[in-house]
Structures are given as structure tokens and as C-alpha cells.
Design brief:
Elements lengths: L11 H4 L4 H13 L5 H15 L4 H13 L11 H10 L4 E7 L1 H10 L2 E5 L6 H11 L3 H6 E5 L7 H8 L2 E4 L14 H20 L3 E4 L19 H4 L6 E8 L1 H4 L10 E7 L3 E2 L6 H15 L8 H5 L6
Parallel strand pairs: 1-7, 2-5, 2-6, 3-4, 3-5
Antiparallel strand pairs: 6-7, 6-8
């Protein structure tokens, strides 16, 4: 068995060597270690230990295999059912008094055809919180269909990697306009982007709901930023796509940018009226309208600078 006092810290390399008993012992300690409140962390450890204690050896081996390989290719990685339950249980101690509004917009749009959710991005915890809130509110079927476009950094740190295994994710290259991004040759960036868009198209045709963060990176201020112009690729991948704006608030306080721990916070999730590409405008017009819709759903202190809205909502 692993010994937390003498063994090396858990990372991706160590994790792939763990047998089932070691994994069942390691996961509760590892995940509870990211809860900033000690009393809540103790409760969380017990909650997770009870859950993973019921995993059989085959499930443990499947989870280790997923964690060892996720993110290597530009394709959809489906959540492992055991991991999905793990994330929703773990989030119980971090998301408090969740609120959900506008879910009828997602349900109606999805009944009519392929759907892309465009949302603001303030924390690495955004997608996990969205999944959990939907599931807790009785919309697990919608949560299970979400496929989130995830940048490379999601797959580089074990805690975020575990979170990714609990969700349906699609690795995508990140815009080279950000200073922290790997600098790729234009041709290589285009190749990877096309692979991701192709995988997204196939997922949408199969009934998935694609989740995209069009700012391209987490907001450092909490305010809604401008959208990357390249997001139009997602809106062009199928005819008649419906875009549903989504706004999340509270996760920036639960897991602030630059911190590795999470703290219990109230989180709200709201959806706006769907916009259909073609009927309601071309992709650029849809992006601008979605930006305005998201802004209207956010609390005042998270809304964008008025000068930005009056100018352009898109990076040129």
C-alpha cells in the first residue's frame, strides 16, 4: 500500500503505477487536499472514500488507463461513469446553494438539432460546476451530453486531469495570441484545429452538446472578456447550429485564478435564449449577440467594460 508520509507526491507517472487498492486509498486523500477549508476537507475525504471504496478492481484499472492516456489526441474523451459520479460527489462540498435558470432554453434548442453552448470562463472549476449543478437539478441527461473544448493546460496537471476524466472533453489547441501558450507554426495550429472541429462535428451529429469558452482563457478580472474571432469555426461546423449563451458566477471565488485550492462558495448558472446560425445572423453576428446575452446574465461586477461592448466583442 502507498504511504502518504514517505511515498512521493501523487502525479500522473506515479498514478499509472497504482494497483486497485492503492488507487482507492489515494484518491480520497488527493482530492480532499484541494479543499481549502480543513473541516470541509475532512468531510470531503470521508464522502469520497465511501464512494471509491465501492469501485471494483476492473473499474480502478479503467480509470488509471483513462488518466494515463487522456488528452493525447484531438478527439472526444468520454467521461468514465465512475469518475463522473466522483466529480459530482466531490463538488457537493464546494458548490453551495447552487442556482440554475434558463435550462428550458437548452432543452428546447436540443430538441430541434445540434447545440453549442458559449460561456464565460473565470475558473478551471467552471465545467465541473456546470456538470454538477445540471445533474443535481435533475438534468443529468443534458449534463451527460456535454462535450467541453479544453485547452492543453487542462491535461498537464493531475488535479485538472482527474477533473477532465470526470467529463466529456475534446482537446483543442489554444490561440497563440496568449503569452502562456505553446507557440505552434501556423500550419500545425491549423491542422490541430481542424482535427478538433472535425471531432466536434461528429459528436454534435451523435447528439452531443458542445461547450466552448470563446474568450479562449480564464478572465483575470472576473469580467467577461472579448471573444476570439476563430470561434466562428465551431459555429460553421454544421448547418443550422443553435447557440445557447451560458453565464456562470461564483466559481471565480471558489477557485480563483492562480490558486490550487477550492473553497465552498455559492455558484449560479444561467442560460439565455438560443440563437440559430443563419436565421439569426452569420457566425460573427451570432458571436456578438451571444456576448451581449452572456453579459446580461452576469452580475454587474462581472459584466464587460461598456467601451468594449460599444466597440467590438471579438478579437481582431
Amino acid at each position: 500500500m502507498i504511504d502518504p508520509e514517505s511515498d512521493p507526491p501523487l502525479d500522473r507517472t506515479v498514478l499509472t503505477t497504482l494497483g486497485p487498492d492503492d488507487l482507492r486509498a489515494a484518491i480520497p486523500r488527493f482530492l480532499a487536499g484541494f479543499v481549502g477549508d480543513p473541516a470541509v476537507a475532512d468531510r470531503n475525504r470521508g464522502r469520497i472514500a465511501a464512494l471509491v471504496g465501492g469501485w471494483n478492481d476492473a473499474t480502478c484499472r479503467e480509470v488509471v488507463t483513462l488518466l494515463a492516456t487522456i488528452g493525447e489526441e484531438h478527439r472526444v474523451y468520454p467521461a468514465h461513469p465512475a469518475c463522473r459520479a466522483l466529480s459530482r460527489a466531490w463538488s457537493r462540498d464546494v458548490v453551495i446553494e447552487p442556482t440554475l435558470t434558463g435550462i428550458e432554453h437548452v432543452l428546447a434548442a436540443h430538441e430541434r438539432g445540434p447545440v453549442i453552448l458559449l460561456g464565460n470562463h473565470v475558473s478551471y472549476f467552471d465545467t465541473s460546476a456546470t456538470d454538477a449543478i445540471l445533474a443535481w437539478a435533475g438534468h443529468g441527461a443534458i449534463a451527460d451530453r456535454l462535450v467541453t473544448a479544453a485547452g492543453p493546460k487542462v491535461y498537464q496537471v493531475l488535479f485538472r486531469l482527474v477533473a477532465a476524466a470526470c467529463l466529456n472533453t475534446l482537446p483543442v489547441p489554444q490561440s497563440t495570441s496568449f503569452s502562456h501558450t505553446e507557440k505552434l507554426a501556423p500550419r500545425e495550429l491549423a491542422r490541430r484545429a481542424l482535427e478538433s472541429v472535425g471531432a466536434a462535428r461528429a459528436a454534435l451529429e451523435d447528439g452531443a452538446i458542445l461547450m466552448v469558452y470563446p474568450e479562449g482563457s480564464r478572465s483575470r478580472t472576473g469580467q467577461l472578456g472579448v471573444f476570439l474571432k476563430g470561434v466562428h469555426r465551431w459555429l460553421d461546423c454544421l448547418d443550422g447550429i443553435r447557440v445557447v449563451p451560458i453565464a456562470i458566477a461564483g466559481t471565480q471565488d471558489a477557485m480563483p485564478v492562480g490558486q490550487d485550492q477550492l473553497f465552498p462558495r455559492r455558484v449560479s448558472l444561467g442560460f439565455g435564449a438560443p440563437l440559430e446560425v443563419g436565421r439569426d445572423g452569420d457566425p460573427r453576428q451570432i458571436l456578438s449577440r451571444a456576448h451581449a446575452s452572456i453579459a446580461s446574465l452576469l452580475p454587474l461586477h462581472m459584466q464587460p467594460d461598456p467601451a468594449q461592448v460599444e466597440g467590438t466583442a471579438l478579437h481582431e
